[in-house]
Automatic annotation (TrEMBL):
Gene3D superfamilies: Crispr-associated protein, domain 2
Domain of life of the source: Bacteria
Protein name, as recorded: CRISPR-associated protein
CDD domains assigned to the protein according to its UniProt record, in alphabetical order: Cas6_I-E (cd09727)
InterPro entries: CRISPR-assoc_prot_Cse3 (IPR010179)
Pfam families (UniProt xref): CRISPR_assoc (PF08798)
Length: 162
């Protein structure tokens, strides 16, 4: 059975995909974009009663950031390594809104998975085109397998370069 049928959509609907390459090729340092990102802002706690041991010797438990300030700082801290910076608004504050914040619990195999998710919407400027392209193609943060990390962009109408 085709995936579309498995997902519950009728088979007579025609789906269309777009080539992503033209957009990726247009990405350049200095461009400004509106963006939206659903992410799992989290950190690895070094000391926690529910320790998780990894094969590389690191002990810790992944914990979601729960306050708006923590979640916003999580995004700002990762922006440079993903080739962008968050622009500031007229009040010299980061031009980003944190919304649709949820804590989700569900079973997976023999464990309960807890995800703290947030949707970020705002404006950014590309600082490294190659890193930004990678972020667009590979996502940002953890929980990509659970629908997090997808960075979407739209032209900034105030910036005529896009």
């Amino acid at each position: 059975m085709h995936i579309v049928e498995q997902a519950g959509w009728p088979t007579h609907v025609e789906w269309e995909t777009k080539n992503y390459e033209p957009l990726l090729e247009r990405i350049a340092k200095g461009q400004q974009w509106h963006f939206k990102l659903r992410a799992n802002p989290a950190r690895k706690a070094k000391e926690d009663k529910g320790r998780r041991h990894r094969s590389d010797g690191i002990v810790g438990k992944v914990q979601g950031h729960i306050t708006v300030d923590q979640q916003l700082q999580w995004l700002i801290d990762r922006s440079a390594s993903h080739g962008f910076t968050i622009l500031n608004d007229q009040n010299d504050q980061p031009d980003v809104v944190v919304k649709e914040r949820h804590k989700e619990n569900f079973k997976r195999a023999d464990a309960t998975v807890t995800l703290v998710t947030a949707v970020f919407e705002g404006r950014l400027e590309v600082t490294d085109a190659e890193l930004f392209r990678k972020a667009l193609c590979q996502g940002i943060g953890r929980a990509k397998g659970f629908g997090c990390g997808l960075l979407t962009i739209a032209p900034d109408l105030n910036n005529k370069d896009e």
